[in-house]
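Lab channel / #folding
Pinned by the channel admin:
"Please post every new chain as: sequence first, then the structure tokens as a reply. Keep commentary short and put observations after the output so the thread stays searchable."

First post following the new format, from NK:
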Amino acid sequence: MNRTTLSLIAGTAALAAVTGFAVLTTPDAAGTNTAEAAAVLPVERTSLLCPAPSLSDLADTSYTSFTPVTKGTESDGKAELQSATEQSADGGSEGKKKADKPVLTPKEPGTPVTGDASGGDAPALVGTAEGKFAPGWTVQETTEVAAGTGRGLQGVNCTAPDTEFWFPGASTAADRTDYVHLTNPDDSAAVVDIELYGKDGALESAVGEGITVRPHSSEPVLLSTLTDEKQENLTVHVNVRSGRVGAAVQALDDKLGGDWLAASTDPTGSLVLPGIPKDATAVRLVAFTPGDSDADLKVRLSSPSGQITPAGNETLHVKAGMTTAVDLGDVTRGEAGSLILTPTDRSVPVVAALRVVRGKGSKQETAFIPATRPVGTRASAADNSAKGTTLSVVAPGRAAKVKVTASVGSDGGTAVSKTYTIKAGTTQNIEAPAPSGGKGTYALTIEPVSGGPVYASRTLAATEDGVPGFTIQTLPDDRGTVAVPEADQDLSVLQK
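Reply from TO:
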């Protein structure tokens, strides 16, 4: 190995620590002068994108930012959440003035901070966090819409930019108004393709190809403008040709309220969809396989007492390239529940999401639960209150023990932690702790302590005029750390 190779390894390790989007492993090699086991370090920089919250003049939106305390971080750092307003090409003063005014600026790790906006002209936001604010940074966008299409409670976790997203559960039906929000955080334009898949396969749509998202801007794309077909259940595939974007689907219903549909986890053979509310009155499963082979899946409901098979829905057959939907009714029957999908035989990559309805008649509300990654090392949910928050945790395999920490409140208090045991194959709605003497909103951080992998989600609920408004956010690993290989102590032999 020469000096050039050594420099490349060092540069790659530094890049991983900054971005937090890569985990590096060292291949096996003969001899004693190989890289040692990877060190786990806090990420040094994080980006988050929040979609424009609503087109309604009756919308009120709050933003809550939180970074959990992480060992090993530097003592300094900063974080800001700003309008994703496109700056002029010449960097004029008007564009710079808008970009320099943050919507909110976090205080210290471990302490939530809030901001708000109202009306239909609230912009999409771009956030960056560095140093001690970067590891595990989370921002929750919560919107209350008083009336009209999509009325109720809408919530979404602001997400990191990426190059591919899958959204099973979208629609172009007559009573639905669904937008794909694309946000570009970078200095150059992004080019995006949007593909739609219905019950019979791909929908023809030349309009969805080569969509340009300008630098530092956001583009809401109405799905019904991409196709003439009216289909109740669609899978949306967002593929970024150049650049990177944040993407989320805003699904608005004339009668059933609305919410944000976050992206499903990457296509995989087994999926977990955690945290179906125990009082759900209707649950619909929407699944899609992007490969060339059909998928056959076992459908199991993880309840507080163990896994059961939904009557009449023991298995699900998903044809290749076609969206499949099945109504599960009030599948939870008054108990906490999560849906677990596993292959009956051969594993075929699948994406999936649930549409969940609460309430009856004219007082119904909708939320979505996409398939998600496990909690992993740690995950946080911001914008909680003692009365309106439900934390749901499922251990689909082995039993697990988890620690849940309620941060200090945005207006003070003392953090409180409790440990819970989740029995194998069960879903538990945890009576999560609240900060001692705390006021305002607070964050919940969940950390596995022992046992098998766990999956989690958080439900926010707020009843308004008899309508049970609610929104659900899944809690995948926050990717606050990255594995970086360590070089051997004696590097002199590497210079030969």
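NK: Confidence is low (pLDDT under 50) at residues 1-35, 87-99, 489-496.
TO: also worth noting, The two ends are 7 Å apart (CA to CA).
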